[in-house]
Amino acid sequence: MSDTTPPQPPSQPSGPRSSGSASPETHVIDFRAAEQLLAARDPRGAVKLLDSVIAAHPENTAARLLRARAFFAAAQLRPAELEFELVLEREPDNAFAHYALARTHERSGRREQARRHFRLAAALDPQPEYLAAARFDDNQ
Predict the structure, then answer these.
(1) What single string gives the DSSP state of each residue in 64-87?
(2) Model pLDDT for residues 66-77, shown as the tens digit of each residue
(3) With contact defined as beta carbons under 8 Å apart, do 95 and 124 qualify?
(4) b/e string for 123-133 if b means 16 or more Cβ within 10 A?
(5) What is the distance between the alpha carbons of residues 31 and 46, in angstroms, rounded to a whole number?
(6) Rounded to an integer, what distance in angstroms lies between the CA atom of residue 9 and that of residue 95?
(7) Theoretical Cys-Cys bridge with 105: which of 74, 110, 131, 140, CB 3.0 to 4.6 Å?
(8) Sign of the alpha-carbon dihedral angle for 101, 62, 68, 89
(9) How far is CA 139 from the centre of its chain?
(10) Tens digits of per-residue pLDDT, 66-123?
(11) What pTM did the predictor assign?
């Protein structure tokens, strides 16, 4: 995976849940469109769509995770970090969020913080990519 490729979760998160807003269908459409924009390498467009989804559904972790990935892809590392951290506050056992936060720390030059989250990701879900990034065989 190249340094500019946004981390990809093992499977796509489910779309936003309705919280009684006037047009939940619009938010689902925006969420799906944001997924497509991110896949088409337009992370800034994805962020714009997700801003309204998150404003209407701030509790929606899937939308926040997608926005974090979009921030990462747009090299907006501090906003990505904040979103990944919020996801982890809500879902501390989310291995992908730990892995993605570690990648964000790595790109920011914070190797020790990255190592911690790489190792948490690998411990939670021993996928080969997570295990390789965790570098358990290093003596440090």
Answers:
(1) HHHHHHHHHHTT-HHHHHHHHHHH
(2) 999 999 999 999
(3) yes
(4) ebbeeebbbeb
(5) 8
(6) 9
(7) 110
(8) negative
(9) 29
(10) 999 999 999 999 999 999 999 999 999 999 999 999 999 999 999 999 999 999 999 9
(11) 0.83
| Residue that has been written with the tokens 């969020």 in this structure | 97
Q: Cα 86 vs. chain centroid, distance in angstroms? A: 10
In this structure, what token pair is assigned to residue 24? 């939940």
**C-alpha angle 1/45/83, rounded to 5°?**
65
For the stretch 117-126, contacts whose Cβ atoms lie closer than 8 Å and that sit 24 or more positions apart, written own/partner, are: 120/95, 121/95, 121/96, 122/95, 124/93, 124/94, 124/95, 124/98, 125/10, 125/95, 125/96
- The answer to whether 31 and 63 are in contact (CB under 8 A) is yes
Q: What is the DSSP letter of 125?
A: -
CA–CA distance, 73 with 70 (Å, rounded to integer): 5
